[in-house]
Amino acid sequence: MAEITISLPDLIRLQADARALKLPAARQVRSRQAGLQHSPQRGRGMAFAEVRQYQPGDDIRSIDWRVTARRQAPHTKLYEEERERPVLLLCDLGPSLFFASTGAYKQVRCAQAASILAWLALWAGDQVGGIVFNTRELIVQRPARRKKSVLQFLDTLAKLQQHPGQNEGKEMSAENAFGLDQAIAEVRRVAHTGSRIFVISDFMNISGDTGTLLGALARHNTVSALRIIDPLEQHMPESGRFAVAGPDGPVWFDASNSRFQSAWRQKLEEHEQALESCFRMSGVSSATLSTAENPATALKPLLGPGGRIG
Any idea where the DUF58 domain is (predicted)? Predict the structure, then answer.
């Protein structure tokens, strides 16, 4: 039976999975300030390193005129990029993520992936924050470089997951429900330029505006979409009668019904085309995480040496 929810203690224990991703990596770290690590990566702030004598090819705009006048020879300022930066995790715990045919529910995989990324970012000296939402709540946690902040974020992930039967007898208008587009707009409002952002969702509820919103977010930040999928959504069985659990109870379908199979394939193709267009239009990179897959395994392609978040 698929794992439906995940608790805060289990999310905390995912530190072990995060440590397993931190393979030994030889690198030299120079720091003038606690928590700052230096790396030539895009989107970081610039920190002053030193002044040295001007060399052919140096940018003349970086000439330090005071030192030049004092030493009677051209000197230039050198800068290097700071590796500390905000890492924001947008986590979709909406109704479509209350589902799985195997492994663990999508909302569990979302929380697990976010937890591993949060621990890795904290250990790298980055600031960690995020936005977690379901249809009824959207909670923003601004980035901070403290273990307490990560624990608060994980607690939010645990609390906002859906539980069987919790929506029975509860009606909520579409106007008052939170969705992916609203969450992306909120991330853009709180993100500082140069942030590293992960959007973790099944992207089942994209709209015509999603690509534009992601593109605006990616204009000044590095954004990756981590799409959570279930094998049943990609490959429908050819026969048999199945029940799929949902927030409002089980839904039955007959896979041997040819009309149902045709409609399913058409809807799947239309969604895949729309999603491909959304990612291409926005310019964000994308990866997938299956409900049947270990999240740490799926995250490896997104990470650099030593489990570094690129």
Answer: 50-272
Q: Of the candidates 164, 147, 157, which has an alpha carbon nearest to the alpha carbon of residue 112?
A: 157
302: left (phi over 0), alpha (psi -120 to 50) or beta: alpha
Which of 31, 56, 81 is where one domain is finished?
81
Residues 68 and 179 in one domain: no
Give CA angle at 213 (211, 216), nearest 5°.
105
Residue 171 exposure: Cα atoms within 13 Å on the Cβ side? 1
Q: Which domain holds residue 288?
A: 8-21+84-307
pLDDT digits (tens, 9 = 90+) for 187-202: 999 999 999 999 999 9
**Residues 241-299 pLDDT 10s:** 776 655 566 777 787 888 888 888 888 899 999 999 999 999 999 999 999 999 998 89
Domain count, the chain: 2
Classify 281 as helix, strand or coil: helix
End-to-end CA gap in the chain:
35
Q: What is this structure's pTM?
A: 0.77
Q: Mark which of 81, 100, 124 sits at the end of a domain.
A: 81
- Can you give the length of the chain in residues? 310
